[in-house]
Structures are given as structure tokens and as C-alpha cells.
Amino acid sequence: MTQNSQTGAAFIAGGSITGAGVSATVGGMGLAGGFGAVGLGTIPVVGIGAVGGAAAYGAFSAIAQGDAAAFGAMGIGAVGGAGFSSVVGGMGLVAPKIGLVVGIGTVPMVGVGAVVGLAAYGIAKLLDESESKETSAQVFERMEEKVLAMDDYAAAVMELEAFLSGEDLNPKFAALEIEDELEQLKAELKEKNQTNPEPSPAKIETKIIPPTTATTEAWKCIRTLKGHSAAVNAIAISPDSNLLATGSNDKQVHLWDLSSGKWLYTFSGQAEAVLSVAISPDGQKIVSGSVDRKISSWQIDTRKFLRTFFYLNSPYSHNGFIHSVAFSSDGKYIVSGSNDKTIRIWGCYTGTIKCTLNGHLDAVLAVIFSPDSKTIVSGSADKTIRIWDVNTRKQRSILSGHLAAVNTVVISSDGQTLISGSTDTTIKIWNLNTGELLHTLTRHSTAVLSISLSINSNTLASSSSDGVINIWHLPTGEIIQTFYGRSPVAFSPDGKSLISGGNNATIQIWQRTQSFDKFTLENIDSELWWEVLGVDRDAHPNEVKLAYRRLARFYHPDLNASENAKASMQSINQAYQKFLEQWNSHIHSRFY
């Protein structure tokens, strides 16, 4: 392969990685217009990224070589884009998870066509320079095969990184040569650290931290719930820890028995993705907030629809997506936060609007009542946290400290401490009464999307957009455990369970153990290897292989400093071994 063709491959792979990152961060996206609506999953967005990378390489080549053919390709693409716009009509790009709605007119479509034309030129140049016999379509098809239809993009990034480095991953792990692979990975890591030493991680900013010792507890996934057909956005648990409610992009709210994992009922009626759910303090009602701008409520025991919360004479509850809903501890009020920048307080029993709180300059992404129901805390895309007095309906204070959107907030059971998670990758701990910043946790490397605090306020769970869940011991600011999962996260009120999102629209239930030695597959049914690897039981072998590689790199003790990494790696190895045994048995039975 020539130097130019390597450069072209780097442009395309880089664009693909960027597209995968956008898909993982933004979540579900779609195109809407007069033709209806079409969802965009990970693969199309990765393809868009690849097109962008190819277009960038085309521009790079055209400038370097002064090739006028590039401008001809752009012109043809622009004409095609204009023609497409005239046939299809008005369109828009919708990303409900982040509240994005953007119109796409004729002029932007002309630009898109020009980019596609330039991408075609870039691919042609790449194929010509590499002397490949593949067509442009075959190149994109081969790239698409590398990105399986999975919710996460880590496996795709790993494959692309391996491609750029020249590493041949296909023969790896074929015979489960774990020790050799880990030793090689260890040597590569040491060599990398010697040649390019990484800067020391930022010290945790601390003012008040008691000198206590972190607990040795560990969390183990005991069950995976399947029932939704799209990503899970919201989790709520009943006060008695018996019931679990989940809201999803599939427009449904599911009710589950938390102890058995049994599906109990599906509450339907939302016209769009459900972004938030909450269960009343008496365990009798469920409310949900949706992209359709409505708050809906149901009676749990009778399974009956109660009402939609309407704002005055409007057919909607808000004028934008409803990102968060929460009950007051006395059950009298419901608070909601919306993409329309407002917070609204509703009567729980009547569904009537009590007041609207204005002040945020961007979408309100999180709202919560204090335990005494006298205070509301809100987090916003405007990078601020605002504290409101429920009785006076006035803003009490503004907390500024995050450098990006505040996605999630929780309050300790004693009402003294506020914790926030942000797109700036940090978790901040505040004194709720004074607004003083007490502590900053900085171990996540991507946006923190969800946090949950245990009933004793000593343990914090946090999840980020890269699929990492951290369990923190708050008195010391130390990480107890790190594992792979999905947002959102929620501790059960009794402290015995942790609920998180999972791969492929699933929900994972974790329980606490006191010994990391118990975190092995020997304590899980031997038939549940797919639960450990986070895939469907009937997943394609290539998908299982990629899931195993992703987890192996994530939990490798040289890359994962958490105390349970070694035990987790052993469980993953055993799970993959059981998969290979079953797969080999299946293949053998087909031919003999």
C-alpha cells in the first residue's frame, strides 16, 4: 500500500470513528419530512462519517495535485442534491435524546450532494493509488461489515484502530490463547508508556473528605431484562424496591417485577420516545415525559391510564421534549424539565399546572425535589445548576462550575449534599445549603449521563457515554469498581440492587457481593455466557467475538486499575470459552 493510500485509509477510518462517536453520544436520530420518518442507527451514521472522511481526502488530494476533476465531481453531486430536495421536499434531522431539531432545505441538500461527489472522487483516488480492484461501493460495503448493528461503537473503533496499526485481529483468540494475548498487550502498554509517557491524572479537588477506608464490596450482573425494542432512556424503582419502570425510544413504558425480572405490563400511549419516568412515593402511580411534549400518568395496580398533563389551553405539557420528571416526597407535586427551557410544577392528583419556573437559558435536562419537598434543583444545557424555593417559587441560587451541559443531579437522603454529572466528564459534589463546591470527581473520560446515590449516601454510581459505569466510595472519593454498561443507572431504595441500561435495548440488574473472588462464571448458570458478554443468545459469532475483544481490553488488569478487573477478566474468558464450545458443537452437529 502506498503512502497516499495509507493517508486515504486514515481519513476514511477517522471519519468512521467520528461517526460512531456521534451516534453513541447523540443517541437515536432520524430524518423526518413529508415522506414520513426514518430512523438512523449506528451503521448509517458511521457511513456518513466515512463519507465525510473520504470527502476530506478528496479535497486533500485535489489541493495537493491541482486536479480539476474534483470540482466536476462536486458539481455533479450538487445537482443531484438539488434534484433530491425538489422531489422529496422539506426534511429535518431529529435527535430526541439531546433535543435537536434542524430543518434541511434545498441549499443544505446541494451542499450534501457536493460533499458526496467529493467523497466519490476521494474513493476513486484512493483505489487508483492503492491499485485495488475493488469498486467504491465494495469499499463502503466492506467497511460497513466491520460495524455490526450494535448499540455501542467500541468494537467498531477497536477494529478501525487495529486496521490503521496494521494489526491482524482475525486469527486472535481463535484458540482462546488468553495468556499470550495479555502478555503481548502488557508489553505493548509498557513500551507505549516508555516512549510516550502520559501525564499524571488530575488530582481530585477536595476540601472536605473524611479519612475513611473504602469498602470491598463488588457488584455482579445477575439478570438481563429483555422486552424493549429500542434503547432504554429512563429507569424508576418503587419505594418498596419491588417494581421497576423503564422508558424507551420504542415509545413504551414497561413495568417489571424487580426480584424475579418478570415483565408485568406495558403502558402505551406516548407518540414518541419516552425520555423520563418516575414512580410516586406511595408506589401507586407512574408518570412519563416524552419527545411528544406530553406528561402521561397511569395507576399501577389497575394498569389504567389516568391523564395527560395539559398546560392551560395547550394540547401539550411543554413546548419541547420533556427530559425529566420527578415526584415530591409528600406525593403532592410533580416537577418537569423541558427542552423549552422551563420547569413546571403540577398538582399530582388533579394534573393542573401550579407554576412555571423561568431562568434557564437552554434545555432543562434534569430536575429533582429535595427530601423535604421544599427545594427543587435543576440542571441545564446552559451549564448551570439552579436551586428553587418551592414555597415562594423563586430562584434561590445559581451554581456555576461545570464547563458543559449538566445532564443529571441527585440529592443525598439528609438533604445536605447535591451531586451533579456533566458533559464536561466531571462529577461535582456541592453543599446544597451554601452552594459551596466540596469535591470534584474526574475519572470519566466522556460525558457523564446518569448518576445515582445509595440510600446511605456512601456509594455513588455513574455512567458515561462510552459505556463505562463507575462505582464510587464517596467518603474517600475512590472508585470501588468499574464495569461495562449503559445509562441510565439507579440504586434500589433498599440498596440491594443497581439497575442499568444494557446492550441491545436491555436492562441489567446488578447485586452486591462482599468478595471479588465470587465474581466468576462458576456462580452463574453455565448456559448464560451471553449475559456475561452482553450479547443476545443468538448473536452472530462475529458479534460475540467483537464483544469479547471489547471486554477483554476494557477489563485487562494492565488497562483497568479497579480491584475486580482480574476476576472480571476470568469470568469473561470462561464465558467466551463456553460460547466456543457450544458453537463448535453446533458446527459439528451440522456436518456429522
Give structural notes.
The chain is of the alpha+beta class and 592 residues long. It folds into three domains: 3-165, no CATH class; 171-199 and 520-592, no CATH class; 214-514, YVTN repeat-like/Quinoprotein amine dehydrogenase (Methylamine Dehydrogenase, Chain H, 7 Propeller). The chain starts with a helix and ends with a helix. Helices cover 31% and strands 31% of the residues. α1 packs antiparallel against α6. It has a five-stranded antiparallel beta sheet with strand order 5-26-25-24-23, with no helix packed on it. WD repeats lie at residues 225-266, 267-308, 315-346, 357-398, 399-440, 441-482, 489-511. Pfam families: DnaJ, WD40. Keywords: Membrane, Repeat, Transmembrane, Transmembrane helix, WD repeat. InterPro entries: DnaJ_domain (IPR001623), J_dom_sf (IPR036869), WD40/YVTN_repeat-like_dom_sf (IPR015943), WD40_PAC1 (IPR020472), WD40_repeat_CS (IPR019775), WD40_repeat_dom_sf (IPR036322), WD40_rpt (IPR001680). This is J domain-containing protein.
Overall outline: globular
User: How confident is the prediction overall: mean pLDDT?
Assistant: 75
CATH-assigned fold name of the largest domain? Methylamine Dehydrogenase, Chain H
Helical fraction equals: 25-40%
* First and last CA, distance: 43 Å
Task: List its salient traits.
single chain, 592 residues, alpha+beta, 5-stranded antiparallel sheet, 4-stranded antiparallel sheet, 31% helix, repeat, WD40_rpt, transmembrane helix
Indicate the topology:
Blueprint: H1 3-26, E1 29-33, E2 36-40, H2 42-65, H3 69-88, E3 91-95, E4 100-104, H4 106-130, H5 136-146, H6 154-165, H7 178-195, E5 205-206, E6 218-225, E7 232-237, E8 243-248, E9 253-257, E10 263-267, E11 274-279, E12 285-290, E13 295-299, E14 305-309, E15 322-327, E16 333-338, E17 343-347, E18 353-357, E19 364-369, E20 375-380, E21 384-389, E22 394-400, E23 406-411, E24 417-422, E25 427-431, E26 437-441, E27 448-453, E28 459-464, E29 468-473, E30 478-484, E31 486-491, E32 497-501, E33 507-513, H8 529-533, H9 541-555, H10 565-591
Helix pairs in contact: 1-2, 1-4, 1-6, 2-4, 3-4, 6-9, 9-10
